[in-house]
Amino acid sequence: KAVVSTQSTVGKLQKKGERGSATNYITRTQAVKKLQLTLPDFRKICILKGIYPHEPKKKRKLAKGSSAPKTFYYVKDIQYLAHEPLLEKFSETKVFVKKVKKALGRGELDTVQRTRDQKPQYTLDHIVKERYPSFADAVKDLDDALCLVFLFSTMPRQGRVQPGIINKCRILAVEFMHYCIAAKCIKKVFVSIKGIYIQVEIDGNEISWIIPHQFTTPPPSNIDFRVMLSFLEIYTTILGFVNFKLYSTLNLVYPPKALEEVFSEESAVYYGDDIYRERLESLNIKLAEVEKDEDEDEMDAELLTGDDSLEELKKQREEEENFRTLFKDCKFFLGREVPREILALVIRSLGGQVSWSSDTGVASVYAETETDITHGIVDRPSQSHQFLSRCYVQPQWIFDSINKCRILAVEFMHYCIAAKCIKKVFVSIKGIYIQVEIDGNEISWIIPHQFTTPPPSNIDFRVMLSFLEIYTTILGFVNFKLYSTLNLVYPPKLLKRCSQKKVRSTTEMISTERG
Questions:
Q1: pLDDT, tens digit, 9 for 90 and up, residues 324-349
Q2: Which segments within 144-298 are labelled E, that is strand?
Q3: pTM score, two decimals?
Q4: Are strands 72-74 and 431-438 parallel, antiparallel or unpaired?
Q5: CA nearest 386: which of 372, 369, 398?
Q6: What is the b/e burial string over 409-444, where b = at least 16 CB atoms within 10 angstroms of the residue's CB?
Q7: Which residues have CB under 8 Å from 304's CB, separation 6+?
Q8: pLDDT band at 267 (very low <50, low <70, confident <90, very high)
Q9: Residues sharing a CB contact under 8 Å with residue 60, sequence separation 6 or more, in sequence order
Q10: What does DSSP say about strands 353-356 and 331-334: parallel, antiparallel, or unpaired?
Q11: CA distances from 352 to 260, 393, 494 (A)
Q12: Strand pairing category for 431-438 and 422-427
């Protein structure tokens, strides 16, 4: 009996790596063997399902003392992938490729064509529903999808990417831009060397993405396009679902179609027609709407007028409505040299009217000779022919007006352009860098952002004030000299009210200079 009790208390020896945190991780090589996939297919299925590698705390211990770089995944994630229906489609694709190669080697062209017609197809709808259970989750993860879709929409058609993928990305990008115009949800615009950053607000979520500049660049050779196309495959599916939902919230027909008044009955309303597609991509047409119930609008009006506590909400809505109609009284005409697509997007999304010459593109609404045009957008050193009834501004004026939430003074912009004193402007986290040229000397300084920061405690302000004392004296003398060169009164004073006979208005002076 004593011997039996001793044997029962002694358990089996545990091998190293079979218990504890080591059982929660699996290497990439082991995962590929378990799923019976190739490495490219394993990367693709992980991208589609949203499974990424994890770094364990005791990596060297899991690697059994080896210092070679290894990639670890959670065992639960790999077990989750083992039940994915796409694995069967991947195996069918392998069989399909083998059949095509075998038929090509034998020279059986009829068999090759018949086999290609039976290529396995799959959809990613179930994956989108798993990863994004609600519409709000899909909207929050829309930044990367928009960046990649807009990037591939500008890819050259003669390259590594198939033209069908580029056309699909272009269609989705145009659909989303039409929604931004109809919903008037653009908040900020920023131009950089990489492209044009756009920020919109959808259901209370701020979404930012970048639109590349309108010129084709050759794709780099050091990028694995298989990985990029795997991300693009899931992103195009997500964006298709999101576009459909967004159009339904605005009671717009999806896919977007033009109103019957805009085009004649002979023109088609589908993407196969090249003429209609060009007009749709111009972003200067009105979209057809679905019949809307009037009961919903009456209920919303009753909710807003029924309670006094909603006055703040009314004010916010009024401010938003004023911003959405920032350019409602403006009528723009674009020059040949300015980016037409981005300007049409931001101007129409804020209630403005825009057109261009019929020689440069389709969907031109009005001609340049109309007298009610308020602004001409140009980006050239001199304009051969100018109309005195309108103001000529650069594209940056549009973006600055949007970011400032108000229409900027055009007279000051004309002065800066004519004087050509500002050379460079750069915004950083420290402030706004400005570079000017005075008497052939380039002067640069930084303007801090407009918010108060507590002074640091590790700075000797006595030294700083000593420098400031001499600098203020120097700047006083320099300001006096600069004002005298421009025949301005120093210290600066405002003009007194004079009769119209003695002093001309600013608009008369500007129109005389243009003449």
A1: 888 888 899 998 889 899 999 999 99
A2: 186-191, 196-202, 205-211
A3: 0.72
A4: unpaired
A5: 369
A6: ebeebbeeeeeeeeeeeeeeeeeeeeeeeeeeeeee
A7: 310, 313, 314
A8: very low
A9: 66, 67
A10: parallel
A11: 22, 15, 34
A12: antiparallel
pLDDT band at residue 406 using 50, 70 and 90 as cut-offs: confident
Measure Cα distances from 153 to 23, 186, 213, 229, 304 in Å. 44, 21, 11, 13, 42
- Distance CA(327)–CA(406), nearest Å, equals 9
Average pLDDT on 467-471 reads: 89
Instruction: Assign 42 a pLDDT band (cuts: 50, 70, 90).
Output: very high
- In tens, the pLDDT along 50-97 reads 999 988 887 777 777 677 888 889 999 999 999 989 999 888 888 898
Q: Is 204 left (phi over 0), alpha (psi -120 to 50) or beta?
A: left
- Amino acid identity, position 413: M
Pick from 389, 384, 385: nearest CA to 374: 389
Return d(Cα 209, Cα 199) in angstroms, integer.
7
Please spell the DSSP secondary structure of 289-319, one letter per residue: B----HHHHHHHHHHHHS-GGGHHHHHHHHH
Strand partners, 377: 334, 393
Largest interatomic CA distance in the chain: 126
First to last CA, the chain: 119
Amino acid at 223: I
Residue 403 sits at the vertex; the CA angle it makes with 402 and 405, to the nearest 5 degrees, is: 60
- Planar angle of CA 28, 31, 33, nearest 5 degrees: 110
Phi, psi for residue 435 in degrees, rounded to 5: -125, 125
From 237, 278, 236, select the one nearest 258 (Cα to Cα): 278
Distance (Å, whole) CA 218 – CA 199: 27
Q: How many CB atoms lie within 10 A of CB 467?
A: 9
